[in-house]
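hey so i finally got around to running both of the ones u sent me last week. sorry it took forever, my laptop kept dying halfway thru and i had to restart like 3 times lol. anyway pasting them below in the order u listed, first the sequence line then the structure token line for each. didnt double check formatting much so if smth looks off just lmk and ill redo it

first one:
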Amino acid sequence: MSKAINFEQIEQTEEFKELKRQKYKFIFPVPILFFLYYLTFPILSAYAKPLMTKLVIGNLTFGYLFGLSYFIVIWTLAFVYVVKARKYDRMIDEIVQKYGPKTKEKGA
């Protein structure tokens, strides 16, 4: 019995197609939304100076807090990506186990 994984067969399964759909629904919108969030800072700095210079807490302005929020958003996105990647890895393992080669031969 061959131990090779037939990736062409796995690629044609509904489970793998659903995995790709779920993955793309997450992977494409997130960078686009972050890019828009990233562009908001210079746009607000140019066109909403009263908002960006408004004191919020002590001597901290809205602009400083908005800039610091990038770190929070980046770490949150990294955490969410790690959680999602683990889910996708489990799904891949299940698909490979289901459609991949059998590790035990009958009669062994």
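and the second one:
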Amino acid sequence: MKSENNNTNAVDPSDLTFTLSENVTAEEVSFKNKYGITVAGHLYLSKDIDTSKQYPAIIVGTPYGGVKEQGAGIYAQNLAQRGFVAMAFDESYNGESSGEPRHISSPDLFVEDFSAAVDFIGTRDFVDREKIGVIGICGSGAFSITAAQVDPRIKAIATASMYDMSRMIRNGWEDTMTDEQRVQTLVQLGEQRWKDFENGTPELPAGFPGEPADSIPEELDPITSEFFEYYGMKRGHHPNAGAAFTMTSSMSFMNFPLMNYIKTISPRPILFIIGENAHSRYFSEDAYEMAAEPKELYVVPGARHIDLYDMTDMIPFDKLESFFTENLS
């Protein structure tokens, strides 16, 4: 087994937003990306695993602003129970991963984290490095696709409730940002950089509350209300997931689009999973149109965007199992 930095502490079940299954083991692991940032992960294995053999592996990225102790861990745990080696990880500068200052967001870094996760998991003795797939939830859906565009070691890609953060930040919700609004936003971000430099630390907007709230504030718009339901309340609240990034992080996303080369992933397959009632479904529908075959768009009846984070009765694990079993064979 090769690893520059590999911890083997068991995951504390009380730190998870879900119940740790008695059928899996969950270990804290860490590894460095090419920028020297230490990425923290949770590695899930079935208790029935024979580590003298090799298994296909799945890497799971978090929702944008989330951490591995939330939805990504739910996916990893369920796939481990189905015979895969599975790992959820925190993005650089966030969660338990290293990097200062905290809560930076970067398309390049977050894409690199997926390839660094491939580096790590593909060097486990019990993993078949020719059978590695990824799942990206929400914002990490686009990051996982972008990683696959240049990393052919990723053999199959699935996304759930995907958000294209570069498109969202540069073009606004449903592409409604005008050129004048974009120019003004960039002027404000430029001014913010001077403020950050003079203050010695970047400005971090207020995120969701540090303690779970009892109700959703009435003044929130419908989309923010939905995210508050997950991040701000007991349902998905975790102290490491304020779902806020430094203000000037937006500049990178406005300058570096994601998924420009999605067609080049072919003939490796992409599965887009969306909720029937998800406000974000247009991101996946448009990406599906841009992608080359083989590809599939799978709609979950009745599901909203956040329901595919944690609702195990809605997340199509049977579909994910069959998709990865077929394409990591």
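quick thing i noticed on the 2nd:
Residues 1-7 have pLDDT under 50 and may be disordered.
anyway thats it, ttyl
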